[in-house]
Protein 1
Amino acid sequence: MEKIVSLAKRRGFVFPGSEIYGGLANSYEYGPAGVELKKNIQDEWWRVFVRERSDMVGLDSSIILHPKVWEASGHVAGLVDAMVECKQCHTRTRADHLIENHYEAKGEKISVEGKSEAELDAIIQENKIKCPSCGKFDWTPVRKFNLLFETNVGIVPEAQSKVYLRGETAQGIFVSFKNILDSTRVRLPFGVGQIGKSFRNEITKGNFIFRTLEFEQAEIEYFFDPETTDWKGLYEKWKGDMWDFVTGNLGINAEVLRWREHGDEERSFYSKRTEDMEYKFPFGFKELWGLAYRTDYDLNQHMKFSGVDLSYTDPTSGKKFVPHVIEPAVGVNRLMAMVLLDAYTEDGDRVYLKFKPRLAPYKVAIFPLLANKPALVEKARAIHDALQKRFVVAWDDRGNIGKRYYAQDEIGTPFCVTVDFDTLGEGEAENKDTVTVRNRDTGTQERIAIDKLAEFLHGKIYN
Ligand code: GAP
């Protein structure tokens, strides 16, 4: 993990948040390489789950929604965590994490999901669990704490009203359900996909970008008629699609993935079944992507709180009912953490990020063999500018070729193209107007004609 965090900073993937002011816990900035990688993961998700499916449409709803949305969803009352505060150093921490980490350190496992504050208190006291920050054992009693960020709308204090930054993108989909029905030709079963920022007042250690204050969620609400669609079959189908995306589109090895079903204590009260796809992070198997059968709970709640009819009328039978929903919900930043960790490869002295070429921040890097030979630089620039219209391209003319390969390997660039004297026709005659293309994973090099280069790269990257 430390190697990845250090590489991520050194090579412009992820920087600590607000670093020049001493940092802000659980917040990060995505640098030039990171923003490309994150965007590629998002685009892949959007392509696979929205654009290439005829049963899906997209949405981009507001971060600030009417405060009643969160009352209806149960977040104002429900999205709360039991916390403790160290009386010595004032560190606040989630009681469940404190207990689970204590047991994990002993090589034991415990599940405290669903336990009351008094029960959590008793476990902390019995085990004399110390503060992870200062090492003292002096806790306040366990208390609830709202994870939703609050802010105010209105410019004068007397006329301000409290609103929340959304804690999940899902609610925006339920709120727009009627407008989607009225403005499109969707018919059940269909899904709505959305990618956008969500905010949670996470106050425990986040493990890099695994858990942060703000994060991008990619969520789907898949609506169906429970009388005509077998939910168990649909649920399994979604499990398959999620698995295929992670193993196929993101290229993750199935051996470091698993499904874990929530027990009765852990599962939200409105969910009939919830399973998490978990990835083996350096800190253990942890939730990557949740799949929940939320029934008709959310639409019913919004009908109740808004007074607006959110039922669906079947255009052929005329049957009117409130659809049920299955929800695959993932964090893009968490997907990115997995992709970065999984791509990290050490081969002797060589370190490289073995991204699927489609996900790599830069697809190809262009090098003039020597920076002080204008003919080489000019030719390399022309190739760079032509390729830039189709790919994200890097340029490097510093140091020697070995150093340039090293730098590109560390950002996972799948192909490096060198323009040399042969390219200019000053070496082997048959190599005129060809370049050397070096493959990141094999280290092998081949000569490709400049006029075939774009097609060659396209075939390798998007095959
Ligand atoms: N609408 C359902 C929902 O939000 P969740 O399990 O709380 O369910 C879904 O969140 C996904 O969002 C998680 O599986 C995880 O990938 C991501 N996620 C949740 N909290 C996060 C955080 N603080 N930082 C980064 N990603 C987070």
Protein 2
Amino acid sequence: MNLVLLGPPGAGKGTQAVRLAEAFGLQHLSSGDLLRAERKSGTELGRRVASYMDSGALVPDDIIVEVILARVLNPTKPAGVLLDGFPRTLAQAEALDKALANASKKVDLVVSLVVPDEPIVERITGRRVCPTCGAVYHVKTLPPAKEGVCDKDSSALVHRTDDTAEVVKERLSAYHAQTRPLEDYYRGKGLMVEVDGTADVETVFQAARREISNRVGEARA
Ligand code: ADP
Ligand code: ADP
């Protein structure tokens, strides 16, 4: 199965994607993580996307489509993929549909994490991530056992340079202008389910898992 997680920056997509991918045996594909890995390796592509990411703008469609589609079509897990952060524009959604259709596959369900703008800045500025395993923490709501250190692999946690109040404003306006229209696109196809993303992490997970189980298939034991 191929699932898409939608929602504004800070909605909890990464947090839930890790849990849902585990529950359904899916490969977690985060477009932001893939782009950050390109930057870290100093590739030509990484250099091309840096200024967009730092300013909070979306990177051009052709770049992200090229980065992600091959991975969607060749998942490392036989069960399929859980897309986190892609698609983010109508052009990306159409490119995804076309590529999947050519491979006799499809998007099976889109889970939208609904969070209003108000809590987003607090969530994003307090976010800390593990550069090694990708685990996501929050300084107040989801702190690691030892401050600044990943619970899983003891790496030093990082504060993303685009996780500032200033850049979040840009990311939110990109979301409203370019990504929100995707909700109607998927609703029109009967693929959209909405989950209240303001509840606590476990409640959001249970609600999303239930929707996916009901609509697409059972979670692993
Ligand atoms: P968040 O998890 O807070 O929503 P991401 O890590 O997904 O943020 O994305 C960080 C940045 O990477 C975005 O601001 C954008 O510049 C770029 N990016 C990620 N995914 C996409 C995409 N599908 N299309 C265009 N740009 C993207
Ligand atoms: P996204 O991938 O959508 O940008 P993240 O999963 O990285 O969002 O979450 C953004 C921040 O909000 C992180 O610091 C995370 O710990 C926190 N967070 C995620 N889900 C919740 C929740 N349900 N309640 C409170 N904080 C949350």
